Amino acid sequence: MVTFENSYLSMWFDPEVKLLYSEWKRLPTQQEYQDGVKRSEKLLNSYQVLYWIMDSTRLAAMPIEQQSTTLHYMAQVIVTSSIKKLARIVPKDNSIISFFEDTLQLAQKAYNSKIEIDRFNTYKAAADWIGMIGC
User: Fold this and answer.
1) Stretch 16-24: mean pLDDT, rounded?
2) Smallest Cα–Cα separation from 99: which of 131, 60, 127, 48?
3) What is the pLDDT of residue 17?
4) 135 falls within a domain
5) Fewest CB within a 10 Å sphere: which of 39, 84, 99, 122?
6) Structure confidence at residue 85 (pLDDT)
């Protein structure tokens, strides 16, 4: 098990099932957000991540203007990675959710990516969708 944790982000990677889990522990600053995305990219590039459960619940309060450039960058990183399924844990009806999903869909088309992406309200629902984790 590979783990990383600081005051605003918690991540672990299970190499047996090739699952990455990340959770924003609080609303990050702009710099912390960019650093967290770089940390995610490093894990994606260092390991053969096939599944990612991304808890973005606390990012809902971050203005879209602060996330836009970083989200475009992260979308490209995701669609060019080894990921097969991306499960996002997010609050219902938030504009940043739609923006991220629209950005990912454009990147998927540009790179002819077949990643499955869906959103959930709980870890259990996300894990059940990925289909390999007992909760």
Assistant:
1) 95
2) 60
3) 93
4) no
5) 122
6) 94
Q: Return the pLDDT at 134.
A: 47
The CATH number of whichever domain residue 84 belongs to comes to 3.30.750
**122: CB partners within 8 A, 6+ apart:** 89
What domain range is 126 assigned to? 2-130
Which amino acid does the sequence have at 69?
T
Q: Are the C-beta atoms of 15 and 2 separated by less than 8 Å?
A: yes
DSSP codes of every residue in 84-100: SEEEEE--SS-HHHHHH
Which residue bears the tokens 């088309």?
A: 109
Which residues partner with 14 through β-bridges? 19
Q: Are 30 and 64 in contact (CB under 8 A)?
A: no
What does the pLDDT read at residue 39?
A: 94
* Total number of domains constituting the chain: 1
Chain segment 22-32, per-residue pLDDT in tens? 999 999 998 99
Pairing of strands 85-89, 51-55: parallel
